[in-house]
Write a structure and sequence with these properties.
heterodimer; A: 325 residues; alpha/beta; eight-stranded mixed beta sheet; 12 strands; B: 345 residues; 13 helices; 36% helix; ABC_transporter-like_ATP-bd (chain A)
């Protein structure tokens, strides 16, 4: 099976007045055809910047300074803006946390969707409208014909996100990058969206990068997980491997602090301290200052070690012994 | 086990609840302005709109209890929290503070009751004055209310900050110099500085990262023990509420649909809405599962469905649900549910 996307040693840095922020610093992963990769991390871990780098939407002062983003043998980091434009929204689509980032508030939904179809394909307007209607139906919007004539403000938050997903699906992309698309939604609505997305990934063979801070969401959705911390992947592997037997102390801490993993009423297992500023990262392992296992060895930069079949972690003292769930 | 329960209920009966809500309602009305009135007179289809944000809610909270209030957007949970905290007057119904109607208290008692109830807000960015130093944010209220002598003021502020997990060395700083989690700690220190007994937390951890959220939740639990606090913990996150609460109240479109001890709700949910809410929560234990979903959208509170508000989305709805509002009935000791299905069994 060939991979849809292969990212190798991606580096995206922001050149600010205060110094160089290495938001993404040597990230590598592959997404197989029809697979879902959960990219997990807390604020400032670089998960969203990784997504933006792939689709070529990193704004100044940020820049992809190194590495390769291989899509069908082409390096997206090196192609021209025009070539990127042809791929973006066509072969690779993105869904944002706030659907109003995708939708234009002063245009009707049909105008926006038809425009998107026509931007990449030479079809007549009627065919484009059909495609738009089918896409709305596919994401579970009732009476799509009437809804096409509505403006974005006439939709509820959950419905808007469905419209944004429908737009992403218009060209049956091979890869969708979803950046926290359900974070702002209520749980019942989030459940509906996750169900639709899961169905779509299974039926259309679209690959998905699902960026989130919520491990519980990707647990039920993803095939593989990559956990990011301070611009690097600290652990990656199959969902059940990473969630059932995490290796990196950060992953262990993250899973431990999920309330449902703790006994009711007892103190939650917590990670002390907070995410270090990317401007002044300590030498060696970035998690060192918050880690109970850290010692002098951790002053060296750990590599991503193959520790179990299909599971890698960037740590000198991984949790290789059985972890009590 | 039953002996423990008996003992618990005996002590509960002995003391009056710290706060009690009786038939509490809050309506928001949009009155027509001059142009609207004119348009209406000329036959335009405009009308005054009323939202029943909170609709006849009864709730009592005992001293030392943690009550979790759960619901989706627009269910009225924040409005209820604000009325409980005394920062928004109810349209109807009464709030009782230690068994006394807050409106019947004399001014000194009313101020005392208000001071004993504090609120912690969701957004640690919007709820702190950006132009005030931390020491003033934390110290202003106790100073104003004369809770600390001028001489002991500095040490008092230091102590409040330390208790919330902040280094007093930072007390000359402004809110923007802190991270989200630390700001939430400032908000907590501010609330605790006036020695409250009852705290309303409105989505107090919703804006925080998972690892920081765990730190703040632990702080809440530690403070509860240290200071003998009572909490109304408002959240949309069931897993947080499950972890923290003794009792859980579930709201849907302004009404309480279910209320029970926490274990009961999560083990034996009765109301179909609670059941679907629980099944929609993503669980970290789940693997590649089919997400089960509740059908439909949350209806607009401007125009809520007749009868049981949940009937258009409910898989078990029958004729009666469309016309009659179900009453909140006790279906097991301490377990209340507002569903007609309980009459059928």
């Amino acid at each position: 099976m060939t991979a849809t996307l292969e990212v190798r040693d991606l580096q995206t840095h922001f050149f600010t007045r205060a110094g160089v922020v290495k938001a993404v610093d040597g990230v590598s992963f592959t997404v197989g055809r029809g697979k879902v990769l959960g990219l997990v991390g807390e604020s400032g871990s670089g998960k969203s910047v990784t997504g933006f780098s792939i689709i070529g939407l990193v704004d100044a002062p940020g820049r992809v300074v190194g590495g390769q983003i291989l899509y069908q043998g082409r390096n997206l980091a090196k192609i021209s803006e025009e070539e990127m434009r042809q791929l973006r929204g066509n072969r690779i689509a993105m869904i944002f946390q706030d659907p109003m980032m995708t939708l234009n508030p002063v245009l009707r939904v049909d105008t926006q969707m038809i425009e998107t179809v026509l931007a990449h394909e030479k079809v007549d307007r009627e065919t484009a409208r059909q495609r738009a209607r089918d896409a709305l139906g596919m994401v579970g919007i009732p009476s799509p014909d009437e809804r096409l004539k509505s403006y974005p403000h006439q939709f509820s938050g959950g419905m808007r996100q469905r419209v944004a997903i429908a737009i992403a699906l218009l060209h049956r992309p091979e890869l969708i990058i979803a950046d926290e698309p359900t974070t702002a939604l209520d749980v019942t609505i989030q459940g509906q969206i996750l169900a639709e997305v899961q169905k779509l990934a299974a039926t259309t063979g679209t690959s998905l990068i699902w960026i989130t801070h919520d491990l519980s969401v990707v647990a039920g959705l993803a095939d593989d997980i990559a956990v990011m911390y301070a611009g690097r992947i600290v652990e990656e592997g199959e969902v059940s491997a990473v969630l059932d037997a995490p290796l990196h102390p950060y992953t262990v801490g993250l899973i431990g602090s999920v309330p449902s993993r703790n006994k009711r009423g007892e103190p939650l297992r917590q990670i002390p301290g907070m995410t270090p500023s990317l401007l002044k990262l300590p030498a060696g392992c970035a998690f060192r200052s918050r880690c109970a296992r850290a010692d002098e060895v951790c002053l060296q930069e750990p590599a991503l070690f193959d520790l179990r079949p299909g599971q890698r972690a960037r740590c000198f003292h991984p949790h290789l012994e059985e972890v009590a769930a | 086990m039953s002996a423990v329960l008996d003992q618990q209920s005996a002590t509960v009966a002995a003391d009056t609840p710290i706060i009690e809500l009786r038939n509490l309602s809050r309506r928001f009305e949009k009155k027509l302005d001059f142009a609207g009135k004119l348009a209406k007179r000329l036959g335009a289809p405009v009308r005054e709109e009323t939202v029943h944000a909170v609709d006849r809610v009864n709730l009592s909270i005992r001293k030392g209890e943690v009550v979790g209030l759960v619901g989706e957007s627009g269910c009225g949970k924040s409005t209820l929290g604000r009325m409980v905290a005394g920062i928004m007057p109810p349209s109807e119904g009464t709030v009782l503070w230690r068994g006394q109607d807050v409106r019947s208290l004399n001014p000194a008692e009313a101020r005392e009751a208000k001071l004993r109830t504090q609120m912690i807000f969701q957004d640690p960015y919007a709820s702190l004055n950006p132009r005030m130093r931390v020491e003033d944010i934390v110290g202003e209220a106790p100073q104003f209310h004369g809770l600390v002598p001028a001489r002991g003021f500095d040490t008092y502020v230091d102590e409040q900050m330390r208790r919330a997990g902040l280094d007093p060395a930072f007390k000359k700083r402004y809110p923007h110099q802190f991270s989200g989690g630390q700001r939430q700690r400032i908000g907590i220190a501010r609330a605790l500085a006036v020695k409250p007994e009852f705290i309303v937390c409105d989505e107090a951890v919703a804006a925080l990262d998972v690892s920081i959220q765990a730190q703040i939740l632990n702080l809440f639990m530690r403070l509860r023990q240290e200071l003998d606090l009572t909490y109304l913990f408002i959240s949309h996150d069931l897993s947080v509420v499950e972890h923290l609460s003794d009792r859980v109240v579930i709201m849907y479109l302004g009404r309480v649909v279910e209320q029970a001890p926490a274990e009961q709700v999560f083990a034996r949910a009765n109301h179909p809405y609670t059941v679907s809410l629980l099944s929609a929560v993503p669980r970290i234990e789940a693997r590649k599962r089919a997400f089960t979903t509740v059908q439909g959208e949350i209806p607009s509170p401007l125009n809520p469905p007749s009868g049981c508000h949940f009937h258009p989305r409910c898989p078990h709805a029958h004729e009666r649900c469309k016309v009659e509002v179900p009453a909140l009935k006790e279906i097991a000791p301490g377990h209340f549910s507002a569903c007609h299905l309980n009459d059928r069994a």
